[in-house]
Amino acid sequence: MGKIIYGSEVSSELREELRLEAEHLKQEGKRIPKLAVILAGDNPASLSYVKGKAKACEAAGILEETFHLDGSVSQKELEDLIHQCNENAEIDGILLQLPLPAGLDENHAIEQISPHKDVDGLHPLNFGKVHLGIPAFVPCTPLGIMELLKRMGCDCDGKNAVVVGRSKLVGEPAARLLLNANATVTICHSHTKNLKEICRNADILIAAVGKPRFFNHEYVKEGAYVIDVGINRLADGRLTGDVDFEDVKDLCAAITPVPKGVGPMTITMLLENTMKAYREAVNESGGL
Ligand SMILES: Nc1nc2c(c(=O)[nH]1)N[C@@H](CN(C=O)c1ccc(C(=O)N[C@@H](CCC(=O)O)C(=O)O)cc1)CN2
């Protein structure tokens, strides 16, 4: 049986380190890091993720304010709020929960976020820097994926990595990080031919297609490191990943489960990025 790496356990460890750092700041009478979360509309999954983020901030001693806008909010109202958060020196990080309601321009809204507060790593400046190998804010899920690979004991250098999915939140930046770590990277998507063969050649397989239990043993090479990014709700209400966990777990070197795998790491990396934004703001202002 391959090693099962729980993102929930890694998260507990990392969140405790952040909590101690925030507690130390409090004891020293310093300003406390703060995250602003902007949610437009009432998408049930987004509401639940935003609640999870607020709870995680509270537990880590990071301040958080959720701005819950009506689903009918205009582009201008949304962007005015982003500008206010940019101007607010108490706010270190800004997260715009995605997806936005239909009719709003996601890319234009993200571009309004100050790159210094872009803890989601989606602003074109941060996105571009990551692609140039320049230190920047990195999107949270790909950052979590790299941490999980590290915890699996996987050295990416020289390995064949296959990323299935090319979204701007996950697949595309994950592929870039793997390339930056000297893996040989293939990105697959809905138009890819011979998906099975390509995946079977992967030393590292990142599954992010949103199809429940799609990747069975026919897609997985013996000894592969498998990261399951899928979060699919079954008819009975249970969550399952894109990987057929039971079918694959004995074949691979290590695998992440769903739930308790990549999902919690997304929130943990958001906390890490918020702390990073805080540290940079403090350094920039010459200390507080
Ligand atoms: N602006 C952003 N929007 C979205 C992002 C993002 O990184 N930035 N990612 C996803 C959703 N997401 C965070 O926003 C997220 C998804 C899943 C989890 C998580 O902890 N999942 C748990 C299961 C939770 C459940 O029971 O439903 C798990 O996998 O164990 C956290 C955050 C889309 N939008």
Automatic annotation (TrEMBL):
Keywords, comma-separated and alphabetical: Amino-acid biosynthesis, Histidine biosynthesis, Hydrolase, Methionine biosynthesis, Multifunctional enzyme, NADP, One-carbon metabolism, Oxidoreductase, Purine biosynthesis
Question: Has the keyword S-adenosyl-L-methionine been applied to this entry?
Answer: no
Q: Can you give the residue ranges of the Tetrahydrofolate dehydrogenase/cyclohydrolase NAD(P)-binding domain?
A: 139-280
GO terms classed as biological process? L-histidine biosynthetic process; methionine biosynthetic process; purine nucleotide biosynthetic process; tetrahydrofolate interconversion
Q: Which SUPFAM superfamilies match?
A: Aminoacid dehydrogenase-like, N-terminal domain, NAD(P)-binding Rossmann-fold domains
Protein's pathway: One-carbon metabolism; tetrahydrofolate interconversion
By its UniProt entry, which InterPro entries does this protein fall under? Aminoacid_DH-like_N_sf, NAD(P)-bd_dom_sf, THF_DH/CycHdrlase, THF_DH/CycHdrlase_cat_dom, THF_DH/CycHdrlase_CS, THF_DH/CycHdrlase_NAD-bd_dom
GO cellular component terms, semicolon-separated: cytosol
Q: Name one Pfam family in it.
A: THF_DHG_CYH_C
* HAMAP family xref list: THF_DHG_CYH
Quaternary structure, from the entry: Homodimer.
Family membership: Belongs to the tetrahydrofolate dehydrogenase/cyclohydrolase family.
Q: What is this protein called?
A: Bifunctional protein FolD
